[in-house]
Structure formats: C-alpha cells, structure tokens
Design a protein that fits this description.
The chain is of the alpha+beta class. The protein has helices at 2-5, 22-33, 50-61, 78-89, 106-117, 134-145, 162-173, 190-201, 218-229, 246-257, 274-286, and strands at residues 10-11, 18-19, 38-39, 46-47, 66-67, 74-75, 94-95, 102-103, 122-123, 130-131, 150-151, 158-159, 178-179, 186-187, 206-207, 214-215, 234-235, 242-243, 262-263, 270-271.
C-alpha cells in the first residue's frame, strides 16, 4: 500500500533520508559506515551491495544480457538499456529549469545543473582538483596512480577508462555505426559524429572567458587558453626550448634531427616544415 500512499516510514538517523522499505534503509546505511563486504573474486575490488558486485562481475565476463529490440545493442544493466531506448524515441523527459535544455536521463540533467551552480563536489585528495561527477574524479585519480585496468584483447594496449577501450576496439573491427544525417559520412563513435555535426551547424559552444572566441571542441579551447596564460608546457629535451603547443615542439625537433619530410613535387627541394614548403610553392606559382 505504501506505493499508493507514497509513505516512507523508514528514516535514516544520520541524514534524514526516508525509505519505503526497511531493506532499502539497511542498504543505504552502508553509505555512512563505508562497509564493503562484497568482494570480487577476480580483481579484489569490494562493493557496498551484492547488486553492485553482480554488475561489476559483468565487466569481467563481458556479458550484456539486456538487449535493445530496436538495434540489438546489448547492455550489462537494465537501467542503461532504458536510457538507451530514449535515443530511438528521441524522448528527453528531464528538463533544466534554468535554461530549458532537455536530457535523456536524470543523471545527465544533474550533471548539467552543476554547470549553472558552478559546484564541483568531488575533490581529489591528492592534488585538490575538483570535479562535477564522481566518474570524472575516478578517471582523474588514475592519472596519479598510472593504472590502466582496461586492456585490449586484440593488441594488448591498455586504457585508464573503459570508454577509451570501447572507442579503441573499433580500430580492429572497423565498425562505423554513427552516420551523419546531413552528408552520410559515418563515424566510429557518437562523440566523433557530434563533433562532425558542428561543422554543418557552425556551432561553437566552447567560449573563451578571456576574449569570447568560440570553439567547436573543448580541446581547441584548452589550447587557445595558453595564449592568455603565456604557458609553454612542451619542452625540448635537446636544447630546453619551451613551446606552447605539442605540434610546435614536434616541428622544432626536426631542427635537431635534420629531417626534412616535406618535398616539393615541382623541383624536389625539401623542407622541415610544411609552412616553409607552402611559402616555397609560391615561387613556382608566380612563374
């Protein structure tokens, strides 16, 4: 009857959160105690509940028992399948009260709301850097530990997060399931398709807070920010010269190696930099 009345008689004495069932309250209490009695026999990782352990075990077995009837894609968790189904229906039931943007899942909406509040509740104990989500923090922690637990069975290459391994796997399979509705070009990942779509829309959602310049990719914004900070993080191991971009360092290294990979098809003259070759080509076009 509690499902009809909405009553939640079982209340946590620590934080006041209420539950319909005593079993739910019992599971909740381990959040405060930190107890993790359910240990994985494969890797030793411990979990709060048996359900969490079961879901984790699927990462070892690779089993994905929950299948989408629309496209056949498999998922290890039923909740992931339910979220995926919304891609087919194009339903976005979770709307932001601040800007009106809609999202497929409540988790996506929650993470989005933090962009309005500026809140970053998940803090790294090693360097103090803060993150919007616990997943972002977990991925960041691996930078400190150097751990790369996700290994490719084809070539042995290891990754710090499973999503990077998943993206890598299409290198072996050659699959390109993500197709552009505008030009028909196909991509390996949904992220690649999303970035490509920005070339059609002209949208540049990543804005520089210093000068207002917009970028289609956040990586390009990060590179641009170095112009304002004056930071030169890429240092030459040969002469100590510091450069703002990795690509600039790569070009600089050719000075030391003497390599000249850029050849003029007209006269055969070689250059270390593509920019030098382009300038040289003007000699031929002028004549």
């Amino acid at each position: 009857m509690l499902t009809h009345t909405g009553e939640k008689p079982h209340k946590c004495v620590q934080c006041g959160k209420a539950f319909k069932k005593s079993s739910n309250l019992k599971r909740h209490m381990v959040v405060h105690t930190g107890e993790r009695h359910h240990q994985c026999s494969q890797c030793g990782k411990a979990f709060i509940s048996s359900n969490d352990l079961y879901r984790h075990m699927l990462t070892h077995t690779g089993e994905k028992p929950h299948k989408c009837v629309q496209c056949g894609k498999g998922f290890s968790q039923s909740s992931s399948l339910r979220t995926h189904i919304l891609i087919h229906t194009e339903e976005k039931p979770h709307k932001c009260s601040q800007c009106g943007k809609s999202f497929i899942s409540s988790n996506d909406l929650y993470r989005h709301m933090l962009t309005h509040t500026g809140e970053k509740p998940h803090k790294c104990v090693l360097c103090g850097k803060s993150f919007i989500s616990s997943n972002d923090l977990h991925r960041h922690i691996l930078i400190h530990t150097g751990e790369k637990p996700h290994k490719c069975v084809q070539c042995g290459k290891a990754f710090n997060i499973s999503s990077n391994l998943k993206r890598h796997m299409v290198v072996h399979t050659g699959e390109r399931h993500h197709k552009c509705s505008q030009c028909g070009k196909s991509f390996r990942t949904s992220q690649d398709l999303h970035r490509h779509m920005l070339t059609h829309t002209g949208e540049k959602p990543h804005k520089c807070v210093q000068c207002g310049k917009g970028f289609s990719r956040i990586s390009n914004l990060n590179k641009h920010m170095i112009i304002h900070t004056g930071q030169k993080p890429h240092k030459c191991a040969q002469c100590g010269k510091a450069l703002s971009k990795r690509s600039n360092l790569k070009s600089h290294m050719l000075i030391h190696s003497g390599e000249m990979p850029h050849k003029c098809v007209q006269c055969g003259k070689v250059f270390s930099l593509m920019s030098s070759l382009k300038r040289h080509m003007a000699v031929h076009t002028a004549s």
